[in-house]
């Protein structure tokens, strides 16, 4: 191929042979255009924008076409007389499939003889400098000549190839994406229709990709999500948004709903929004996990009831809706003796009871009232009522329902509640204060004997403040030595000797003076301060006992023990430590427990008491006959002493049932080999009656008021040196009555 000076490669003759020259082009065989017509054609060709050439066949003597030569061209890049069709390369990358130079020549011949046109696209045209060029070549018959036009499509072909590669990359990414992908139309009247969907999206919605083509995307959306989804589509179609991200629901193949996160972006054509590409990620599992976490944050996992957080939210809403014609009742319910269930039947049985109580409470209330479990066996009900009286009716109804027997593992249990009630009509009421008031009333119900309901009043608040102050005083006394012990002598009736002393705790209050246990022991028990206080009492009592034993080796001390000390399983260790630190003989320490300790004691507490007696100490039942203990407890626990309560002793001065009860207790104790101590002896007549009934040991104001350890040491000396019981009793009784 020969390039003329100034001619561009795109105008060079495609497929020409370098240096090849044709015959004299002025020679016109028969059948060709006459000169005038030829001139007109050439003039028209010269005005065409694309390169054009007129080629004439060259025939041999037999009339066979042997080659073609250019007789006219509208570009200086192609000279007249140039041979045509020596070489060409199609745009096929497979070299084995490329035809030789004769192929183009034969096609020219076919056009010349057959009259059909020839169109070859993207022909590869080599240039002298090695640059790749591509042309589209068209050949048509013009009489006995051929009209050849060509256009350089190199730039377009490169663009097309890039687009093709891009399309292939997109198609590969689209079809193989691990997330669902949708292409939605933004064209008018087609807005939201599915143009394409990949397999991942089709699997998610349970349909074949081809079934989704052309369908409205609204078919996949949850009805509640349609408005938001199509609002975003409308904004993108209007050009006011380039994309969005939303979480919404798509219908699955099984009819359920899958939560998906949709990330959409707009694709423009000719400057206008044309379609949307959506990435659809299945987030159902994440949403379920979030919902589970949210549920756990608001609901009790055991019972399914709301927890404190949800309760407070509902209380705030309920308070805000109050008016003069409605009230809100808040009821705090705590199960009585629930710990017995856990201790005897195990925590699994306890959980069954809690679930049953939650079910009963839920059945008793009506929406939008709220039932919540705060902790352990404590439930709260918030209910709209007409007035305070109606609130108490609710309390009675709840009490009756919760007191019905519960069948658990073959046992029929009655676990009644203590219920505290408060009501309000104030839309400005503080929910925290309402809950506190109900809680105060509930604790008052427990202190009053349990198994009842109590309505809150301001007295309870005053009591609560006082109890808080008392608790603070107890903590201060523990840290700063504010406790002291007094001792009341216990006398052997037979010889009048002081054989033991009961340790009696006193609190030195900075404002209220010396306080007996009645003023603070309930607070100590409720706050668990009773455990460290009890430890201090044992330490101090053993120290005093060691001092007494230095003078009277067989002297004993009696110490009261609380239910909490036993249930905390701290008693045996406390006693062992106190005896070692003081040098006292633990066998001379008598621990007094009430009948309630025996009633509340589970297996672990019984084992704790056994550890105490194994160490040599003895147990006494205090206030025997005033509680619910049965003879079975005397057999189950290692009890050595029973103490007759003062309520029976005070009636011994006059005929009546008290004398018969005391006589029966003494006779029972003698039969069981137990020692008997009578408390609250305040008169000579009571002492005489007890001696006559066979009681062996006594204590009370008639024999001596509580005194310090040093004072009791003097009494010990006097009782041991006196001429017998009568002399001792005669000596101490007047002082005792004073």
Task: Explain the overall architecture.
Pfam families: EAL, GGDEF, PAS_3. With 738 residues, the chain is of the alpha+beta class. 41% of the residues lie in helices and 25% in strands. It is built from 25 helices and 27 strands. The strands form five sheets. An eight-stranded mixed barrel has the order 19-20-22-23-24-25-26-27, surrounded by five helices. Strands 3-2-1-6-5-4 form a six-stranded antiparallel beta sheet, with helices on both faces. β1 and β2 (65-73) form a beta hairpin. α10 (347-364) packs antiparallel against α11 (388-402).
State the gist of this model.
The protein has 25 helices and 27 strands. The chain is α+β, with helices and mostly antiparallel strands and 738 residues long. Strands 19-20-22-23-24-25-26-27 form an 8-stranded mixed barrel, surrounded by 5 helices. Strands 3-2-1-6-5-4 form a 6-stranded antiparallel β-sheet, sandwiched between helices. It has a 5-stranded antiparallel β-sheet with strand order 8-7-11-10-9, with helices on both faces.
């Amino acid at each position: 191929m020969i390039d003329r000076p100034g001619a561009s490669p795109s105008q060079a003759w495609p497929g020409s042979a370098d240096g090849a020259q044709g015959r004299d082009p002025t020679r016109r065989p028969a059948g060709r255009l006459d000169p005038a017509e030829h001139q007109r054609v050439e003039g028209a060709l010269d005005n065409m924008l694309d390169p054009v050439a007129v080629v004439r066949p060259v025939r041999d003597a037999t009339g066979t076409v042997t080659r073609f030569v250019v007789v006219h061209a509208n570009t200086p890049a192609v000279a007249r007389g140039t041979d045509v069709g020596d070489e060409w390369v199609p745009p096929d990358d497979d070299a084995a499939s490329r035809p030789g130079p004769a192929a183009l020549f034969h096609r020219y011949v076919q056009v010349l003889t057959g009259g059909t046109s020839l169109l070859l696209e993207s022909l590869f045209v080599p240039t002298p400098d090695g640059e790749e060029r591509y042309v589209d070549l068209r050949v048509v018959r013009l009489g006995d000549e051929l009209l050849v036009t060509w256009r350089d499509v190199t730039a377009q072909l490169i663009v097309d190839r890039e687009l093709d590669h891009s399309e292939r990359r997109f198609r590969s990414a689209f079809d193989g994406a691990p997330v669902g992908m949708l292409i939605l139309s933004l064209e008018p009247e087609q807005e939201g229709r599915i143009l394409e969907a990949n397999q991942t999206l089709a699997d998610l919605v349970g349909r074949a990709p081809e079934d989704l083509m052309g369908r409205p995307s609204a078919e996949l959306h949850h009805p509640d999500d349609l408005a938001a989804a199509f609002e975003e589509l409308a904004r993108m179609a209007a050009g006011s948004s380039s994309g969005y991200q939303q979480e919404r629901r798509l219908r699955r193949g099984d009819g359920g709903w899958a939560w998906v996160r949709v990330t959409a972006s707009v694709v423009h054509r000719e400057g206008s929004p044309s379609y949307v590409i959506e990435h659809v990620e299945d987030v159902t599992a994440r949403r379920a996990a979030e919902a589970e976490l949210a549920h756990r944050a608001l609901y009790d996992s055991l019972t399914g009831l709301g927890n404190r957080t949800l309760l407070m939210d509902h209380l705030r809403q309920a308070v805000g809706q109050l008016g003069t014609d409605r009230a809100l009742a808040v009821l705090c319910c705590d199960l009585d003796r629930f710990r017995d269930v856990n201790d005897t039947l195990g925590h699994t049985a306890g959980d069954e009871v809690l679930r049953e109580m939650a079910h009963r409470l839920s059945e008793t209330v009506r929406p939008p009232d709220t039932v919540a479990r705060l902790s352990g066996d404590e439930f709260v009900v918030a209910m709209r009522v007409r007035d305070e009286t109606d609130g108490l009716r609710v309390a009675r109804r709840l009490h009756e329902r919760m007191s019905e027997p519960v069948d658990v593992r073959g046992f029929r249990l009655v676990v009644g509640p203590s219920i505290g009630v408060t009501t309000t009509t104030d839309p400005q009421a503080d929910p925290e204060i309402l809950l506190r008031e109900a809680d105060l009333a509930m604790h008052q119900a427990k202190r009053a004997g349990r198994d009842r309901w109590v309505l809150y009043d301001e007295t309870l608040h005053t009591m609560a403040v006082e109890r808080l102050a008392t608790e603070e005083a107890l903590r201060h006394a523990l840290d700063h030595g504010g406790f002291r012990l007094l001792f009341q002598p216990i006398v052997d009736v037979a010889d009048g000797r002081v054989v033991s002393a009961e340790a009696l705790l006193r609190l030195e209050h900075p404002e209220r003076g010396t306080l007996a246990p009645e003023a603070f022991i309930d607070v100590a028990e409720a706050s668990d301060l009773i455990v460290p206080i009890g430890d201090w009492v044992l330490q101090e009592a053993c120290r005093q006992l060691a001092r007494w034993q230095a003078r009277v080796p067989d002297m004993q001390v009696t110490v009261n023990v609380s239910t909490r000390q036993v249930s905390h399983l701290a008693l045996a260790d406390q006693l062992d430590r106190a005896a070692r630190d003081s040098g006292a003989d633990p066998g001379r320490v008598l621990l007094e427990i009430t009948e309630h300790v025996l009633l509340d004691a589970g297996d672990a507490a019984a084992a704790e008491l056994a550890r105490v007696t194994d160490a040599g100490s003895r147990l006494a039942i205090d206030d025997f006959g005033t509680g619910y203990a049965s003879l079975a407890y005397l057999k189950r626990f290692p009890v050595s002493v029973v103490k007759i309560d003062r309520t029976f002793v005070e009636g011994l001065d006059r005929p009546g049932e008290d004398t018969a009860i005391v006589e029966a207790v003494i006779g029972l104790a003698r039969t069981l080999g137990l020692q008997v101590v009578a408390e609250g002896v305040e008169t000579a007549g009571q002492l005489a009656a007890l001696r006559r009934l066979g009681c062996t040991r006594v204590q009370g104001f008639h024999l001596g008021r509580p005194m310090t350890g040093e004072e009791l040491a003097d009494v010990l000396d006097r009782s041991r040196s006196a001429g017998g019981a009568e002399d001792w009793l005669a000596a101490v009784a007047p002082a005792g009555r004073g």
